[in-house]
Write a structure and sequence with these properties.
With about 170 residues, this protein is α+β, with helices and mostly antiparallel strands. The protein has one domain. It has 4 helices and 4 strands. The chain has a 4-stranded antiparallel sheet with strand order 2-1-3-4. The longest helix has 14 residues. It is globular and about 35 Å long.
């Protein structure tokens, strides 16, 4: 069995200019989490507007807060529309080439310093996924943003709800 590839630089922390080292939510060291971690980055007009890493525990805890309705819809959508073999080169949903896209999300499931799985979702497809989310799930996401990306009102990181990169990747059914 082949060893998974190293985590590509595309999934590095833009702010620190190196791979993510700590979970955005709990602050624990990611490489110490044997169960893996999740990295997501959202781009608008070609610029990274939001990035975060979540340890397995925090990602699972946040997913538990999502409504059963949202989890079911997302799992069904993933089963019917998401191609998990396109990596970071093409949109996992529509197949559009990632080269030249201005609005998109990339995400990766990592273990230690290795990439287990990665995908790209173009802005149009990411926007379509948002319609699958219940208001309670959107509220959970807003709390995550408010708690982890502080800043004065109207300044700093103010991502739209479309910046919800974690959702379409291997959603557990409720």
């Amino acid at each position: 069995m082949d060893e998974p590839p190293p985590i590509p630089p595309d999934l590095d922390c833009e702010y620190e200019g190196r791979p993510f080292r700590h979970c955005t939510r709990c602050g624990e060291t990611l490489l110490d989490d044997r169960s893996g971690y999740h990295v997501s980055k959202a781009y608008r007009k070609g610029e990274c507007v939001m990035e975060y890493a979540l340890c397995h525990h925090c990602r699972s805890a946040m997913m538990e807060e999502f409504s059963g309705e949202s989890k079911q819809r997302l799992a069904d959508y993933q089963d019917g529309h998401v191609h998990l073999d396109r990596g970071l080169e093409q949109c996992s949903v529509c197949g559009r080439s990632g080269e030249g896209l201005d609005d998109y999300v990339i995400t990766g499931l990592c273990s230690w310093d290795r990439l287990q799985h990665a995908l790209l979702i173009c802005g149009d497809c990411a926007e379509g996924v948002q319609h699958l989310l219940s208001q309670p799930t959107k509220d959970t996401w807003r709390r995550f943003v408010d708690e982890n990306f502080p800043g004065p009102p109207g300044e700093g990181v103010e991502p739209e709800i479309e910046s919800l990169p974690a959702l379409p990747v291997t959603v557990a059914r409720s």
